[in-house]
Amino acid sequence: FSDFFSSIFGSRGNGFGGQSGRSAGRRGQDVEMELPIFLEETLSGESKQISFQIGDTSKTLSVKIPAGVTDGERIRLKGQGAPGMGGAANGDLYLIIRFAPHPKFDVEGHDLVITVPLAPWEAALGTKVAIPTLTSKVMMTIRPDSQSGQRLRIKGHGLSDKQGQRGDLYAQLKVVMPTHGDEATKALWQELADKAAFDPRAQWSN
Fold first, then answer.
1. Mean pLDDT, rounded, for 9-28
2. Stretch 8-37: mean pLDDT
3. DSSP notation for the chain
4. Measured between alpha carbons, how far is 205 from 30 in angstroms, rounded to an integer?
5. What is the pLDDT of residue 8?
């Protein structure tokens, strides 16, 4: 009988079912988390410290933001996930890049867009405006008779791509009316309207 049971279940030395006494190793679970970053951090090349919890363990890592990252991109950090069991490998940590909203810039791929408010007389007569960028300011000439909604390109002041090339910054013009005006100011507007004799909706009659 002992030979019969040994042939089915294995000998006592190997344990029930012929397995060794040790349990099989199991790879650690992968961990996924969002990583909010400022647009300026995509250009700095500096490391960002992140802290997160895996089970009962707290971990802190210093992560260098890769050049050319995009919003929603998934970055893998090998072996930084949950620990493996029985000597097996750790899982991986996946970081999902999320661009924090910026008070001045909108993101379009690797390009940036900034709205440039102009007074009506600045759009009509032309002016020079210091345009903010991610790292400095750039003087831009606004030509006379500029139109609201017009976009002007500032080359090389956008976000970096994977090859380190910068996208562009687009200055989108927006004519803004003064919120308050006294009677004298209103009279000047009326005088302008009378002298200009301009109909912005003239094409509707065609």
1. 58
2. 68
3. -HHHHHHHH--GGG-GGG--SSPPPBPPPPEEEEEEE-TTHHHH--EEEEEEEETTEEEEEEEEPPTT--TT-EEEETT-SSPPBTTPPP--EEEEEEEPP-SSEEEETTEEEEEEEE-HHHHHH-EEEEEE-SSSEEEEEEPTT--TT-EEEETT-S-B-TTS-B--EEEEEEE---S---HHHHHHHHHHHHHH---TTGGGG-
4. 65
5. 45
Query: What is the pLDDT at residue 5?
Result: 40
CA distance 141 to 153: 11
Distance CA 141, CA 205 (A): 34
pLDDT value at residue 131 = 97
